[in-house]
Design brief:
With 145 residues, this protein is mostly helical. It is built from 7 helices and no strands. The chain has one domain.
Length: 145
């Protein structure tokens, strides 16, 4: 074997990888339910929430898509023990930060959805950052090839 060979990761690596995958699958579900929201569901929302959805710029929706799909791909890459998982998680984090930039500073999201709606976006940013750190940690320990 050469110096670049991978080391068998510990069991908790796999647990973190599965949690990352499940977390990102929940995000995919949220994204798809929003993108494919039926007219019936849309009109059942309060008018302020409808206006919020209608006024969202396409770049914010694109950031959401980048965050979600690259997060899912990063989780799969992590479970496949691929070093490029870190790069994909960084891309996901950029998408997350752009999306949250819009929600926190460029829209009235929290006026409409209440300040308690800030909890999940903050957790999403933290989780995205932790996935980048974890992929870097795993790569430095040669758990990824």
């Amino acid at each position: 074997m050469n110096d670049k060979s991978t080391v068998k990761p510990p069991m908790w690596f796999w647990i973190v990888g599965v949690i990352a995958l499940l977390w990102n699958l929940i995000g995919v579900s949220a994204y798809l339910s929003e993108v494919f929201m039926s007219e019936e569901v849309f009109v059942s929302m309060p008018e302020a929430q409808q206006a919020l959805y209608e006024s969202r710029p396409s770049w914010a929706t694109a950031a959401f898509a980048i965050a979600i799909w690259s997060g899912l791909l990063g989780s799969i890459a992590l479970l496949l023990k691929k070093k490029w998982a870190k790069v994909v998680f960084i891309l996901s984090l950029v998408g997350i930060l752009l999306q949250q930039l819009y929600h926190f500073f460029l829209s009235n999201t929290f006026d409409v959805m209440r300040t308690t709606a800030m909890i999940l976006p903050i957790l999403i940013v933290i989780f995205g950052l932790l996935l980048v750190i974890f992929a870097d940690f795993a790569a430095k320990r040669n758990w990824l090839s």
